[in-house]
Write a structure and sequence with these properties.
Blueprint: E1 8-12, H1 17-28, E2 32-37, H2 40-52, E3 56-61, H3 67-78, E4 84-87, H4 102-130, E5 133-137, H5 150-170, E6 176-182, E7 185-186, H6 196-202, E8 209-210, H7 211-223, E9 231-234, H8 238-241
Parallel strand pairs: 1-2, 1-4, 2-3, 4-5, 5-6, 6-9, 7-8
Length: about 240
């Protein structure tokens, strides 16, 4: 990760929450950042926050489920290469498995799992060019049964295995692939989480993480030059007591 400036990063899901925190921290360290997401207004807000702090960022509006649109992103970055890809794009909703529609299943699995593959697949040439790193953000549902979230839990488990598989396949090219698995994190999504106060009360550290704390863990994994195929859980110890 120690290369001549400016280093280049793509942050998918960069319009809010953990992705935005990653973009801001990278830009503050002198990186050139492209933030990717579906919502143009949210992307613009991230770019404005980075610019106001003296950093450099640009927006690229795309749905991670759109393989052809991501090919356009790949074309934009391939010439100079890419040092880091952070995949923080994702989404879910609560639904009992017995009531989950095919469209509901596809929407969540395609966003979280298929989108992770599409991003990885399209941006691999740019990562290979600079022996960059890829970090997936995987909601901490994959380690156990997630009642009401069969679609999301299955997709996140798939991303974990995708991470490990790509780590093996891409190691000969100098590309490292890891994941960070956050628990309760103080973002917009937390407000929609059922029983959030009860869950936070079970966290040994007694609180939710901030988006900045999760971003710091992501950037640690990005810089850990001899780590690949691993998942770093950052949940305040919740997995130890649940």
């Amino acid at each position: 990760m120690e290369r001549s400036s400016p280093q280049r990063a793509v942050v998918a899901g960069g319009g809010s929450g953990i992705g935005r925190a990653c973009a801001v921290q990278l830009a503050a360290a002198g990186w050139r950042v492209i933030v990717v997401g579906r919502n143009a207004d949210k992307l613009a807000a991230t770019v404005a926050q980075v610019t106001d702090a003296g950093g450099r960022a640009e927006a690229f509006q795309a749905d991670v489920r759109d393989f052809d649109r991501l090919a356009e992103l790949a074309a934009r970055v391939e010439a100079e290469g890419l040092d880091l890809l952070i995949n923080s794009a994702g989404g879910q909703f609560a639904a009992p498995a017995a009531e989950l529609s095919p469209n509901g299943w596809r929407a969540v699995v395609d966003t979280n799992l298929t989108g992770a593959f599409y991003l990885s697949r399209q941006l691999f040439p740019a990562l290979r060019k600079r022996q960059g790193a890829l970090v997936h953000v995987v909601a901490n549902l994959w380690q156990r049964g997630g009642a009401g979230y069969a679609h999301s839990a299955a997709a996140r488990a798939g991303v974990v295995n995708l991470t490990k598989t790509l780590a093996v396949e891409w190691a000969p090219y100098g590309v490292r692939v890891n994941a960070v698995s956050p628990g309760m994190t103080d973002t917009e999504g937390l407000q929609r989480y059922p029983n959030r106060e009860e869950t936070i009360a079970r966290v040994p550290l007694g609180r939710a993480a901030s988006a900045d704390e999760v971003a710091e863990a992501i950037l640690f994994m990005a810089r850990a030059g001899y780590v690949t195929g691993e998942v770093l859980t950052i949940d305040g110890g919740l997995q130890l007591v649940s």
